[in-house]
Automatic annotation (TrEMBL):
Domain Hydantoinase/oxoprolinase N-terminal intervals: 10-187
Protein name, UniProt field: Hydantoinase/oxoprolinase family protein
Pfam families tied to this protein: Hydant_A_C, Hydant_A_N, Hydantoinase_A
MF GO annotations: 5-oxoprolinase (ATP-hydrolyzing) activity
Signal peptide: none
Domain Hydantoinase A/oxoprolinase: 208-493
Amino acid sequence: MIKRRKQMYRVGIDVGGTFTDLFAWVGDSGSIGKVRMAKVLSTPEDPVVGFMNALSKAGIAPSEIETVIHGTTIGTNALIERKYPEPAMVTTAGFRDTIEIKRQSRHHLYDPYAVKPSPLISRKQRFTVSEKMGADGSTVKPLNREEGLQVARKIAERGIKNIAICFINSYVSGRHEQEMRDIILEVIPDAKIAVSSETRPKIRELGRFMTTAIRACLFPVVGDYVVRLEKTLQEAGCKAPLFIVKSNGGMMRSQTAKERPEELIESGPAGGVAAGNFIHSMLGLNNMIITDVGGTSFEACLMENGQGLVTDEYELEWEMPLITPMLDIRSIGAGGGSIAWIDEGGSLRVGPQSAGADPGPACYGKGGVSPTVTDANLVLGRLNSTLSGKFQLDYDAAVEAIEKVSEPLGLSVIECAEGIIEIACENMADAIRMVSTDRGRDPRDQTYVSYGGAGGLHAYKVAQSAGINRILIPPFVGVDCSAGATTMNVRHDVEGTFYAALLEVDPAELTKAFEKLEKDCTDMLVNDGVAPEEINLERTALMRYVGQSYEVATPVPNRILDEETLKEIAHEFNNQHKLEYGVYSEDFPIAFVTLRVTGASQAEQPLKDHLGKILGPKGEKASNQISGQRESYFNGKKYLADLYEVDQISKGQKIQGPAFIAHPNSEIVLPPEASAVIDEYGFIHISVNKEAKITMKEAVL
């Protein structure tokens, strides 16, 4: 990696649905000389504008940047909204409808009117050719070249340039797919082609086909965006390399991102998990649930020993699996911009619809008229009327918006506003349970780490509902994902199918397979600018009991494997299976299914002592004084809550609720029963009184 020069910024920028956040630091050899933070409204019509606005607000000249790390939701949004140039798909005869038929399971078992999401590629753009590869890699039926040429000509006639090639059994051999790619390039020389045997050579065709289709869909979307961003930065005088945050918790060069756009699906939230790794190294917290509440969504990810849990089959939508290794981040439509509404049964609902950045909540005064979570917080007196100095919020507009749902429900504006907050927080708590109890972890053993501009507003209520009694708010709250991005390393995962019963496997063959993956992974890292001596490699095997339909990720030693090592692997598999599912058996035979090698560079992180000096409490200089008071409502009662400025709180000072702690990019709410202290690094620790939890009914009476 490039050695950093003094006075050059390492910049992280995360573009979300409502806000674009920036965190940057400058120094040398891990020290920090300056820190810059900024939060601006996103510009959905062109995210590049919001990106550059964040730099401008932070006072950072593009020529002062040494490295840029960027988290973006552009790929996710394009897929969900189906806003991409539709690609063509070429597959084996008989498998044209695989991505539409899917697995035939039901999202809601007893819903006779359920409608599956529309396929990413419509049937008219899916073509078939005669060919078949055997499960052992042998050719059962050669690729019919003439049929291939006819298909290529049809695709050319339709003006399609982004194409997915997905043949059955290509995970074991990609010869036929490569032949088909060559045929297409003869007819369409400038085509961008995604080949399933290279995208993810893993068993089971639905996941492999869907992941390859996603890559083909995103080629033009991500490619165009990254090219425009690179050009804009260069024209502004920036000579720094651009890295894009990956969904596996690492980053890659922008050039690689253009070729592997499917790895950007959870790009933005992954930065928050990287920040969690940094928190682990600073405070020694092993069990954390990282949460991020922005304007549009709520994300949660469980971390163990500083590492986020990984999933191998993330679903973009129901039965749309993406089989790249990804951080197990659960997202729901619950944020500051989530809209409150009344369903057909007359019940109050919140989200997943969002007012976004434009027009935004009603109180933003930009034309929004729907009642949102932000409007409810303002009416309850829990939100600074200037949004931490960004702009003046319109209280009357917020009241008028909430009246649209309070009056039909027969509630006062205050009662309805508390109901909106209660429902939104319960929805967030459900996401907490998904990342913890769904994977065999007890949320009561975790520390709730709150990120996002709206995170501090809801952290106490969400943690209380989920049964968590420890809350941590970092000093970079509100720009957490961008802060985490600046601590990331380059990371790649390389996988290959290796189906074999553990008792029958040849250790030499297993070692050879891992060594090939290690070489491929090393080549990718070097291509992204990582020096070979800075590369760390880890082995993982996806394993299962014979007959199971799912796998468990199992660590494998980084050495030449032998019979004794296989026993160690079997023991570790049983441990991991028990951790995930609560049971294991030493009697059932075990099988390898997929091998994975994860390679990463050495992460560049600031030293915690230097960070504490910049962002921590001011000690003797802090006034410890209440900066003011504000009328606010909790549980139907009016309080006069104390106001504190975060930079005027001393280390160890206890703050008792009801109170609000103002932060440049967030507002932290302490209900009457809550208390908080700040540590030497600027982290705010909040204790949760679980006995004080009230019901929704009590909240609105």
